[in-house]
Amino acid sequence: MTSLHRIIPAITQGYAICDIINGFKLVPAFLAHGVATLIISLIFNELNASHILTPMLIMEVSTIVLAILRADFFTPTMQLVTQASFAILFFISRVLVSPMIYYEIFTNM
Fold it and tell me: How far is it, in rounded angstroms, from Cα 5 to Cα 76?
């Protein structure tokens, strides 16, 4: 396993905890999503199989920046920079990296 296989599921667990917290404040769907995501990622991590989740979770990296857009203290310039960062990360993670990982998996299988 690489560092990427360790950090990406950990980030997902952090988002799961945020979904659980938001589920108590917002709608129950967040709570259900957070609990399910946390349980699944914990199971894969405990079984040392987080490398199975990593290709799918790579696509979610851009969501980190998307969540930052909710900040209400950003100036318009900072919001623009954050939106541009989201677009760049979205392109890199979902259009370039993820298909490459899937191709590697497909050719190895």
Answer: 35
* pTM for the model: 0.64
d(CA 13, CA 9): 6
pLDDT of 1: 64
Rounded to whole angstroms, the Cα distance separating 82 from 94 reads 18
Residue 21 Cα to chain centre, angstroms:
17
Sign of the dihedral through C-alpha 107, 97, 29, 47: positive
* CA distances in angstroms from 74 to 38, 65, 71, 82, 89, listed in the order given: 30, 13, 6, 9, 19
- pLDDT, residue 32, reads 93
